[in-house]
Amino acid sequence: MRLTEARHRDRDRPLLVSRWHETADRHLPPLRRSLLITWISFGVTFGTVRVITHGIRGGWLPWGNISAAGEHLHHYNFGIATLAGVGLIAVRGDERAVGHPAVAAAYGCGTALICDEFALLLDLQDVYWAKQGRISVDVSLGVLSVLGAYLTAKPFWHEIGRVTRHHIVAAAARHGATA
Description:
Blueprint: H1 3-12, H2 15-27, H3 30-58, E1 67-68, E2 71-72, H4 75-92, H5 95-98, H6 101-116, H7 118-123, H8 134-152, H9 154-178
Antiparallel strand pairs: 1-2
Helix pairs in contact: 3-6, 3-8, 4-6
């Protein structure tokens, strides 16, 4: 991008937003940016779906469940369709599409829609409002916490993996030398 175009673009943005963009450009390489978008969209979708389902059940939202030919469509169906679309983009291998923030957001949304109804998929019974439906919430919070721990200390985990691989290879070499 030419300098004059960049200055014009920056002039059109509020100062704080420009600083956020600069900070993101400096500290979030494409992979980390995609991961951040994925897990933010996961959390927002999961929370939104919980509010909507409670609103439908409680009658305080003006709409109801989605149905097709008289059959209730669970939101995991939309999650599976979304992940199938993301998978198609990944299989095609178009780097610009694969790395696009919308793909990361779609992946997080689709995963949240499936995780929220994990108990239904596990038992093949509609237990969303039953006590055993709580497993969906537990699984989703577990996914968020494990991935949060990974993303927070990603360089540490990669170094642990490197050290472990080195140790295994060295042990195998020593074992092979004695055999």
